[in-house]
Design a protein that fits this description.
heterodimer; A: 429 residues; alpha+beta; D-Maltodextrin-Binding Protein, domain 2; 2 domains; 3-stranded antiparallel β-sheet; 17 helices; B: 335 residues; mainly alpha; MetI-like fold; two-stranded antiparallel sheet; 2 strands
Chain lengths: 429, 335
């Protein structure tokens, strides 16, 4: 029996060893299967983007369409809200495992190019897997940095004043192209007095709006390698902001903080918000009211400082399947059916073919098209401000410090000083 | 079968022997080599069974700790190779007003939250120590929040409870307090986190209960005969007798409080670009560490912050250990 016991123990050890080995093998097999193609030539690419639930639904539909046309390519998806997306992306990219293809924005092009993360897609254009023909308004050059094609635009957008239409109507405010900041300030007071709602959710913290204001005055938020404005400029901007918060023309920052990630406009605690024009799509999904677009106020009655921006699709330099990724991007920016599904969710389609394929019938999308057409007609569009490496950190700091100011945790001077300290670190200047 | 019968009692005798002498003595002299071999084999088996844990410890705990100690003295953004910068991370940290703010928030949380939590735990433990009907149920019920309190879902619920026009805000209004929801207020949000930790008093409560059971009844009886009141008995008997347990709880909960992260991140999170609360209201130390590491990609600085936290917690622990001479009472020989 003692012999038997020994045998038993040995058997157990062997079994344990064997199962460890099997587990190990299993892990290896899974790791291998994760990225590369399987026997029948089917490859899987990973696609990640930021956005809300309604964007996810649309994108999943377009992916089904893509997989039908390219049965040998499978697409695995992943999405988060904006800030979480970039945290996750940064971690994945640093570990050498970024998604094969992902949504990108202008503020991140230089950053991730400097870190060697982005694939130069011009090779794929030459190979005929991706066409850069048929883009509207010079957008084909939008994702080019130092001669490299790092991002392919999916849709143009522009900063706008997104408004709760019934509230504006009730207050009797009718914003027109060329209205000035004085008109705007009067309108904010008007709305507060007649509707009891704050006019704006916190424009003083929106980097892209302050950029437009600076551009109206011959400056810009960034230069090629640093900040394009002085501490005195920002002191003026935030002094006005502080007054607005105290007077109740801007929403109580405590309330804005609590309802996030929902927007203050959709939550009906602000009558308007400066943001990208395609956000009306999201607000319409989120809120109950009717949302419209108003022009950006000007300094001289003409110049708004606006430019057309665009979200892009970029590819990872480490992708095993550059050809398939290029085909995917090509399909997403050129296929007319995709445009019909996406609408203006990511802006007005960047290619003429997609622009023609989707003729909006609903008010929200019609308004976006009309808004961008009016910008072209008014001739207010100018070249975009450069976004140096570190621009994303400056944007986050600008928003955060403005909020601290609005919550009364910082004086204007203190806030300005803190922003300049942090952005100088981020920009390395 | 026969062998088993003859051997079994012998083995049992060995294992139950009184002290080491019978265990080694006779067997060693008869079959020393075999036993050694066997012992080695048993050790091997032991290590093999422990190997998942050992591998995990080396790969997932010890390795990263050593690496982070190195990173603490480098400029490391995850992408480029770490660059040695000596103590620069530490000098930057001490001069950073946001870092100083996070230290203040954390200390405030520890100093306010920990005593309140222990008071709640001790209070409820005293109530539950008296035998009464449904005792087991009450103990389980009071312990339950500790099981779920640290979860993400509870933090989300907490955020909702303390928002504008939610239950806390409405209750306040009944008493004429119009301060609004706590989660949007940079000065109040930390108290919603304190409330969350106090609510999870179950774990220290169970330890207090065990401590209370150990207090000898005859001490109370003697005191009662001498005419000591309830308060007096608590102060002069209960408290000194459970002081080792109290010390243990203070130590554990203090260390635990320093490590607060997920509740601060979630209750304060979602506030736009901020990781931790409006105007950094719930920016506890670990939150700022996370922001520097993962939002700003400054892993070297984040590692330095992590080691600084370790040093600070070690210092606080040392002070607590030093202080126990003055207030912790150990029974003779129990030390």
């Amino acid at each position: 029996m003692q012999h038997h016991q020994k045998v038993e123990r040995r058997t157990i050890l062997k079994a344990a060893g064997a199962s460890l080995a099997v587990a190990g093998l299993g892990a290896t097999a899974t790791a291998c299967g994760g990225d590369s193609g399987s026997g029948d030539g089917t490859v899987t690419i990973r696609y990640a983007w930021w956005g809300a639930e309604d964007r996810a639904e649309r994108i999943n539909k377009t992916i089904k369409l893509f997989e039908k046309k390219y049965p040998k390519i499978k697409v695995k998806t992943d999405f988060q809200p904006y800030t979480d997306f970039w945290k996750k992306f940064n971690t994945q990219a640093s570990g050498g495992n970024p998604p094969d293809v992902f949504q990108n924005a202008i503020g991140f092009l230089r950053k991730y190019d400097a870190k060697n993360v982005l694939l130069d897609l011009s090779e794929q254009v030459k190979a005929g897997n991706l066409s850069m023909d048929g883009f509207r308004a010079g957008l084909d050059k939008f994702g080019e940095i130092d001669g490299k094609l790092l991002g392919v635009p999916v849709g143009s957008n522009s900063m706008a004043l997104v408004i709760d239409k019934p509230v504006y109507t009730k207050a009797g405010v009718k914003p027109e192209q060329g209205w000035t900041w004085d008109d705007f300030d009067a309108a904010m007071k008007n709305i507060r007095d007649k509707t009891g709602r704050a006019g704006d959710s916190g424009m003083y913290g929106v980097m892209y709006l302050y950029d437009l204001y600076l551009r109206q005055n011959g400056k810009a938020f960034f230069t090629e390698d640093g900040l394009g404005f002085s501490e005195a400029d920002l002191t003026d901007w935030w002094t006005k902001a502080k007054k607005g918060v105290e007077e109740g023309v801007y929403t109580d920052a405590k309330k804005v903080a609590q309802i996030k990630p929902k927007s203050a406009v959709a939550a009906e605690i602000a009558a308007g918000e400066f943001t990208w024009d395609n956000f009306t799509v999201r607000y319409t999904a989120e809120g109950k009211s009717e949302y419209g677009l108003a022009p950006i106020p000007t300094t001289d009655g003409k110049k708004t400082g606006q430019y057309l921006g665009s979200l892009m699709l970029s590819a990872s330099k480490r992708t095993q399947h550059p050809k398939e990724v290029a085909q995917f991007i090509d399909f997403m920016v050129h296929d007319p059916e995709v445009a019909k599904i996406m609408g203006y969710d990511r802006g007005v389609p960047a290619t003429q073919a997609q622009y023609d394929a989707f003729k909006p019938t609903d008010e929200v999308n019609k308004a976006i098209a009309a808004y961008e057409e009016s910008l072209v007609a008014a001739g207010v569009l100018e070249p975009i401000t450069p976004h140096p490496n570190g621009a994303d950190i400056c944007e986050a700091a600008f928003l955060r410090i403005a909020e601290e100011l609005a919550l009364g945790k910082r004086s204007v001077d203190d806030a300005v000083k803190q922003f300049f300290t942090e952005s100088k670190t981020a920009l390395g200047s | 079968m026969g062998t088993t019968v003859t051997h079994a009692p012998a083995r049992e005798g060995l294992s139950k022997g009184n002290g080491p002498q019978p265990r080694h003595g006779p067997v060693k002299s008869s079959r020393p080599a075999a036993l050694k071999r066997r012992g080695r084999r048993e050790n091997l088996a032991g290590y093999l069974f422990m190997s998942p844990w050992i591998a995990g410890f080396l790969l997932l705990t010890a390795g990263p700790m050593v690496a982070s100690l190195y990173f603490a003295f480098t400029d490391y953004n995850l992408f480029d190779a770490p660059r040695w910068i000596g103590l620069d991370n530490f000098s930057e940290m001490f001069g950073d007003p946001r870092w100083q703010h996070s230290v203040r928030v954390t200390l405030w949380y520890v100093v306010v939250g920990t005593p309140l939590k222990l008071l709640a735990a001790l209070g409820v433990a005293l109530l539950l120590a008296q035998p009464r009907r449904g005792q087991a149920f009450y103990r389980a019920a009071f312990y339950a929040p500790s099981l779920i309190g640290a979860s993400v879902s509870i933090a989300i619920v907490w955020k909702a409870i303390f928002s504008d026009d939610a239950i806390v805000d409405r209750t306040q209004k009944l008493f004429g307090l119009n301060v609004g929801g706590w989660t949007g207020d940079p000065d109040m949000i930390i108290y919603s986190l304190v409330a969350l930790t106090v609510w999870q008093f179950g774990a220290p409560m169970v330890i207090f209960l065990a401590g209370l059971k150990q207090v000898p009844r005859e001490l109370y009886e003697a005191a009662e005969v001498d005419g000591a009141g309830k308060l007096r008995r608590f102060w002069n008997i209960t408290l000194p007798m459970i002081s080792p347990v109290l010390f243990f709880n203070v130590l554990l909960e203090t260390i635990h409080s320093f490590q607060i992260f997920s509740s601060a991140y979630i209750v304060g999170g979602g506030a736009g670009g901020n990781a931790c609360g409006p105007a950094d209201g719930s920016m506890v130390y670990t939150c700022y560490l996370y922001v520097q590491g993962f939002e700003n990609s400054r892993m070297g600085l984040a590692s330095a912050m992590a080691w600084m936290l370790l040093v600070a917690v070690a210092l606080v622990t040392a002070v607590l250990f030093w202080s126990q001479k003055r207030w912790v009472h150990y029974e003779e020989g129990a030390r």
